[in-house]
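Listing S7. Sequence submitted for prediction.
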Amino acid sequence: MDSFEINKILGALLGAAFVVFTISLLSDAIFANPPPRTPGYILKAAAPTGESAAAAAPKRVAISALLLSADAAKGEAIFKRCQACHDGTRGGPNKVGPNLWGVIGRAVASHPGFNYSPAMKAFSMGGKAHWDYQMVSDFITAPRDYVKGTLMTFAGLPDGNDRANVIAFLRTLSDDPLPLPRQASAAGK
């Protein structure tokens, strides 16, 4: 290859770089993207401490009382948030989290084929702990506070009625649902 051919190739490369650079400058001038005057939302990163932490922590609510008025249809709508990580169908796959078919009454950290975090395995007490209504409620209030070290990144459901509705829906995901607590079953539900 002679020097004239090399010069043509280098000239073409430099010309293409010039065109790309010029288009970049022109597009920045035409389509200006100034930063917003005020942020769309403010993220508060500091965690509350001392008395404010106790005030900010959700109060533990007996779920049996809330199950009296729970609506499984509303719970199904709320459960759609969970479906990014959990499947609720019989024989369905594990996703980022375990399949939740039959979770109420099931031993903690026991769904076959799912690799639970060490924190969740320790929380299961070697298979002795089972997901009852109150434990599910306490867990989904704030998973990372209830099981320290869990890999579940869900922020939680602080509203007791939302939790009761989700639990009522989870109860329908079973061939043999766990009986309702006495207080809720006394109302005939």
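Caption to Listing S7: primary sequence and predicted structure tokens for the chain studied. Residues 19 and 126 are 66 Å apart (CA to CA). The domain at 65-185 is CATH 1.10.760.10 (Cytochrome Bc1 Complex; Chain D, domain 2).
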